[in-house]
Amino acid sequence: MPAFPVRPVAAVLLGVGLGVAAVVVAQQEPQSVPEPKVGLAQGEGLQPLLRPNPQAARRCSARLAIRERPTPADPTNYGERRPTDAEGGRVPNQPSVIVLHETVMSLGDTLRFFQTPHPRDADQASYHLLLDRRGMAYRLVPDAKRAFGSGWSAWGDGSIRHRPLSSPLAGGSINNVALHLSLESPADGRGDDDAHSGYSRAQYERLAEHVLIWQLRWGIPMRRITTHEAVDRSHSRRDPRAFRWEKFDRAWWQAASRCGISAEGPYGLDALPQI
User: Which of 82, 108, 184, 256 is most buried, taking the most CB atoms under 10 A from its CB?
Assistant: First the structure.
């Protein structure tokens, strides 16, 4: 999720010690969406598209032996998924979009940045998950919380403002409904070049598995999996720069097959809304 050209760490990770125990991922049950009062004030296009299937997520997680290393971000670097906007109007606050990033920094520097307190809004950043070059997953922020992965951002025309229009920070964001997953950049990807040598096979395989679990757990179709570059509205984010969708698609199909999930079913590219 870098800003280019290369800037100080806080700017590079607008929007981002190591734990030692690898544990089976904790299952987070989808929470019920608040009952509407007079409809949505913002974010009409950011509502969930599919019904969550937490039971299938648990079965698939066990079959794939999904593991995460707890590496919690400092509480200043994430927040709550808010049910209302700055004026009290109802907005979507359930995960419905998966955004892919890359670190631009080394694994150690990235994790240390997230674990450092950042009282200033401009410095706060985080992902929910981070995959290192070996495919190890680091859990930074719980799914139910709002990670600060995409500052000024939108999904199509959908965005949510949580600041008054009079505020210089009034630009909308999709963080309230986003799940953020980042790939550790290779050594030659820690600059401002247009591309680099790419991500490892292990990263693609683990990425596909974690994305599939998120899809099942929260009801997210393939059409709602995107990149930081695609949702960014600041014209400064280009990550993940060397991402290859064909490699992800192949790895996703393999993971789905192991879990008995049809690639032509509701979680594939041709999914239709079911809510």
Answer: 184
